[in-house]
Amino acid sequence: MSLHWRSPLIFAHRGASAQAPENTLSAFELAVQSGADVIELDAKLSADEHVVIIHDQTVDRTTDGTGNVSNLPLAALQELNASINFPEFSNKEHIPTLEEVIESLRGKTLIDIELSNYKSPFDALPAKVAQIILHFGIHEHVLVSSFHPIPLIKFHQLLPSIPIGFLAKRGFQGSLSRSKLGRLIIPHQALHPEKSDISPNLVLASHRSGLRVHTYTVNEPDEIMRLFKLGVDGIITDNPLLTRRILESFTELES
Ligand code: G3P
Ligand code: CA
Fold this sequence. Notes:
Layout: E1 9-13, H1 25-33, E2 38-45, E3 51-53, H2 74-78, H3 98-105, E4 110-115, H4 125-136, E5 142-146, H5 149-158, E6 164-168, H6 175-178, H7 180-185, E7 190-193, H8 200-208, E8 212-215, H9 221-229, E9 234-237, H10 240-254
Parallel strand pairs: 1-2, 1-9, 2-4, 4-5, 5-6, 6-7, 7-8, 8-9
Antiparallel strand pairs: 2-3
Helix pairs in contact: 1-3, 4-5, 9-10
The structure holds SN-glycerol-3-phosphate (G3P) and calcium ion.
């Protein structure tokens, strides 16, 4: 099964995270207003097994709390202020659940749900995410990604019709994910390599294998332009507004 989304797409990495607190409803809303096609977000489980949206394994960097996400129940997580790095949003933002995000974004955008249970890859996250996708009926508007093969395989067994993006670490660490073997072992429709690994050969080989190429995390104008010129299918960026403007100028130059 190949993925027939148009190219290139702009993915807002943790929402419009250059301008708003990452992985919050404000960052996602701003991303939509900025012209993002896809919202990328990081899903993991709270102690009481709710799917919450936060990047790190701990709440320390992005909130006024401390501790591991996996040790805190939803109620405790949602009491925290998730805007501490953006004083202009003071106290307005909380750690959202996946359900809240879908309710707020449904019908407005595509969503890239990263299964980020890297410390507990055998936990119930894939099953919980699959249940939520089924409940909201958003099959056509979602892609599920991860660096870890186990959550991807588990998720694919549950909902094989949902496209998968296989994230590849930079350089040697990601070489298996970018290889032919990676394509054979992990069912996926899109490869998500780090930007410095993008070459004409990687784009060509991926396209020949029926894979889209969505690359992360690209914020510099020169780099954004270089990657559009190389024919990537998606750019994952903290700044969807800037990326949209560059894509528009590139499209004008081409026509
Ligand atoms: O989806 C690409 C990117 O989000 C992967 O890195 O660490 O920001 O989740 P990270
Ligand atoms: Ca991510």
